[in-house]
Known about the structure:
Rossmann fold, 19 helices
Amino acid sequence: MSPDINFEKLVRSxxxxxxxxxxxxxxxxxxxxxxxxxxxxxxxxxxxxLPGVLGRVERRIIAGPGIRRIRxxxxxxxxxxxxxxxLIYQGHYxxxxxxxxxHSITFVAGYHNDDPFGQKQNMLxxxxxxxxxxxxxxxxxxxxxxxxDMISAGVPKVKxxxxxxxxWLDYPRKLSFDELSRWNCDVMxxxxxxxxxxLECIIKLACNSVYARIYGDKRYWKPxxxxxxxxEVKLFPVVLGDNYRKAICGTKIALSFFSKWNRDQYTRxxxxxxxxxxxxxxxxxxxxxxxxAEGVEAEFFSSADECFDKVMFYLKNDAARRKIAKAGxxxxxxxxxxxxxxxxxxxADILFWRKELVAGAExxxxxxHTVLGSMI
Length: 376
């Protein structure tokens, strides 16, 4: 799809149905699409569940008056606004009956940044989502392995839409003296605890007195680490927003690990870290080797020993580390890994799918073309 195509004339309106938490998810899509000239509105599912603890319970078990309110109000909103595209982000709250009604009114697109088919599959969370998949007109997934999963589940059109960095948040920051005293460290990792290579690497670094910081949830990190190691690790609370970016800018080396629960081959951090101008040291994977030139734009490891060796080398070689960080920044910022480029890809895919859908409906000579014809 040519970048000079006027998307506003082809897709006039999008309704985003919010099902995740975090500024980098639906709010970022909403902002970017509007700035690209699309009339993009927001339907916040979270605002319709019960307040306080009861709301958290509803969102966890996907049941209760708030969940019923979401489904009822979503159908009413789509009927009233008649968006060209309704994007359901994650889709845990929508059951099959809701999707059946939306399917006949609007083009229903889906996106999920987790792996609903992975080894940490939560059937309570996905019990409405999975049976509803055949009713999406098209779906974008975060990772390559989910393409065949979605096709097998009955989704007619599926493509990968990779994560991204946010230009208004992810950029190099010159920290003040006070900020440096708060955020400065040799190595950092921000993320969840998982029983994989991240534990081996953190233990190796801590046992060798590397000044490494972890920004994460103490409830999960503390029991996962040996007591003597935990005493050495600098564990800090989860950081979000501007503080997350300051933490990246305040370190010499930022680590990235890939969740085995989600079968990840890359993660959002591999775009955010270089975009902030910081040296990226990541697990090695085929996807990462396609995204970055190893040893030139980022560095990779496949074991705790290799991670440790590269940490020690680049802590002693400032010029080499800064050269790679600069090249990584240029790679990310010039190769279309920002939110705007991803939204242009999303729009191009949606346009193609909608045209295919209308062409197919007209070819069947049934009444479906009456509704579908209004989508173009």
